Amino acid sequence: MYQELSTNQVADKLLSVEAFGKSYAASIAMAEYLEQIEDCTGEQMQLDPIAIRCEFSFDTIENFAFYYSDQLRASGIAITSLGRFCDHYSRQAVIEWFEERTVLIHVEDDFFIMGEL
After folding, report:
1. In terms of DSSP bridges, do strands 56-60 and 104-108 run parallel, antiparallel, or are they unpaired?
2. 20 to 30 A from 80, CA-CA: which of 11, 20, 48, 74?
3. Residue 2 domain-assigned?
4. Is 1 among the domain residues?
């Protein structure tokens, strides 16, 4: 059986399994991302909130930089061992580094959703 869901219904399902904690903004951002994929491919998707919860993380870009600080520094990106940015260019370089390797969805402020690496 197939049931078409609205953006808000998808976000509610993601929120119900705390795919991104209690962030409704992140759930909406992911729902919109999934809609874009459907629009681009022309194929309908089956929603699996648990799989999304397992395959994506929600955090600040600074925390993501901390988790991957060794790889970022090895790539020549200027960040501290705590994942702090040395300047605005470092922040942008970190974002681009992740975008080249995985899905990175901006949610709001410094919060992002990142796919598995």
Report:
1. unpaired
2. 20
3. no
4. no
Distance separating alpha carbons of residues 117 and 115, to the nearest angstrom: 6
Distances (CA, A) of 94 to 76, 83, 85, 86: 10, 10, 9, 11
Calculate the dihedral angle through the C-alpha atoms of 43, 47, 50, 56, rounding to the nearest 10 degrees: 50
In a domain, 95, yes or no: yes
The number of distinct structural domains making up the chain is 1
pLDDT digits (tens, 9 = 90+) for 54-98: 999 999 999 999 999 999 999 999 888 777 888 888 999 999 999
Q: Which domain holds residue 88?
A: 7-115
The sign one gets for the Cα dihedral 40, 42, 43, 44 is positive
Whether 15 contacts 24, CB under 8 Å:
yes
Say what the pTM is. Answer: 0.91
